[in-house]
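Lab channel / #folding
Pinned by the channel admin:
"Please post every new chain as: sequence first, then the structure tokens as a reply. Keep commentary short and put observations after the output so the thread stays searchable."

First post following the new format, from NK:
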Amino acid sequence: MMAGHEAEPGDAAQAAAELDRALTEVVRATGSHAAAVFLLVREEQALRMEVVTGLSSGVVRPWTRLALAAPVPVATAVREGRPVWVRGHAELARRFARTAYALPYELAMIVMPLATGDEKWGALQMLWPGNRSERLTPREESAIGAAADRMSRALARAAASGAPLRPAPAPRVLPPEPPARRPPAEAQAAAELTERLGVGVFSLDLEGHITFLNNRAAELLGRDRKDLLHTRPWEALPWLDDPAFEDPYLGALFSRLPSRFTALRPPDHWLSFLLRPDATGVSVRVKPAGAPTADPGQPELPSAVAPTRAGTLYHLLYISAGLTEAVGLGDVTAAVTDQIVPVLGASGFGLLTADEGRFEVLATRGFSARNTAYFDRLSMSAATAGARVVETGVPAFYPHPEELRRAHPQVALYREMESWAFLPLNASGRTIGYCVLGYAQPRTFGPDDRAALTSLAGMIAQAVERARLYDAKNRLAHVLQNALLPRSLPDVPGLRVAARYLPATRGMDIGGDFYDLIRLDGSAADAVIGDVQGHSVGAAALMGQVRTAVHTHASTGAPPGEVLARINRLFEDLETDLFTSCLYARLDLPRQRVTLASAGHLPAIVRHPGGGADIVAAPAGILLGIEADAAYPTTEIPLPPGAVLLLYTDGLVERPGTDLGTAVHDLAHRLADSPADSLDVLADSLVREAQNTGQGRDDIALLLVGPENRSQ
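Reply from TO:
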């Protein structure tokens, strides 16, 4: 038993050692200046950095945890099981905008998925300067592929042994290969050389600490050498304590390209900094500079409150970018729970809004069902941490569980986690709710953490408020639109009918698609379908007026062409700039004929009783509302029992990259090949196919009519 027990951690340790060896060797073979291995944590639906080389743990901290659902290179490679190659920042911004926010540096990268068969383990990510050649050489591709296979097999062996490799809270950092050590005499000579040159120079390690500076650099920076050694410049020098000055250092590390900036040392000393990176750190040359003639975009004096670090700011941009793509409230909650929460490293998350004196849980992850049920619909007057945050609008952080339990002893559910952050959702000058983060392990919330989480909560609040407004307008628009469409179609003896209407899946403007069926007498009926130009309340109002006019003129018994001509003349009185297409069909059931007239609408399609379908080649008049004296010719075709006539709007056929005429022919083929025993089933099938191919870009309306087949 003991031997078996001792073997388990060894398998995970052996896998970790194999990852380290493979990573070191592939970096050496390809000239990559930084690389990392991410492991898939399935229960978190996240990827966590296991080991990194070429960068320090502090520098990569904001990017050590990625949501599997996020549209970023590492997650994309794992989800799709394919390599992702990005040749520079322009391509990164085009394909992965969110990563470009977080890494605004000129670099090239490849991400290789780690997998054995169908089992996914994680990814290998490698970086090069953005000025390298566009493509990897065959030798580099071979080395990277071999390293990925080697890592995948090591992870698979560890998992098969029952001791899979699990990522630690922070990634392991493989130190760079040290340069050849120089004798002390040479080191002293080099230091003396920097003094004789009269140029200020200092050196930063991969964590940003000053490891060497000459007297001229200390003089220019305005501090003693002993006060600056082993400190970070942006922390030791108040006038450099701004992300704008830390960012060039991060850019040099990530891209391995030189960077520069100019800063003002109060009261009037302008200094120019040139940074040159390599595998061990960054060398900095500092010298006096003239005052910029134009606004350099840099702050002259630090604020009273220490600003958030540059890396944290980019991390905040990255994790909040998913909110910019969210439209409705469902999109917002999905973006938060699937893409943002996994990056924050929280074990539990809740998003609650406050309305009419009670809280509503919009989204939750990681908390028990009992916890969610307790807080959902809870009174805002309850003595809870969330209620307190909403009341004050001030965030509350509890690094230790006892602090929270002392403040709110009656809420036993707070024992589920060890550390807590309660963040108000402040938007438009009011607090609309709060979000809560729970951590399974004790967590200290430093100034950067508090600032970033509070800012993120503000972004979530704005997204929630925007989404709620969108949803409210969307519901109102669709209620209005549905009110203008017929609630039900009349029952015409001997006639089968099915109609469908689906609004566009994106956008909240109301559409102008309409359809109707008008019973004339016991043996005839008029079927009509149309599409008012645009998506607006004006389009919907015009649609309602056209429908009313159709009913009025149809009741007089006027033929289809005359009905369209009368409605067209009506447009002069409506004083609208919108145009309308319309297809009008009069069904004469005893004669088994249908007469059609078109005002610039898509052609009808008839499905024959024995199978097959034809596009009705009828002359089409111009759109309604263009020429007041336009005429609309008619076409008469047979419509025997069992036949089906399809009238539709362009949302049913339009597909990206497909000619409209080709799409109409494809629809005719689908109609011919589909069973027509039930028009309702047929209508559902046509709509479902349109949604799958057209992506819901426009409204969809269709009307199926046909004489009953009395022989069945």
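NK: The longest strand covers residues 119-129.
TO: also worth noting, Confidence is low (pLDDT under 50) at residues 1-9, 294-308.
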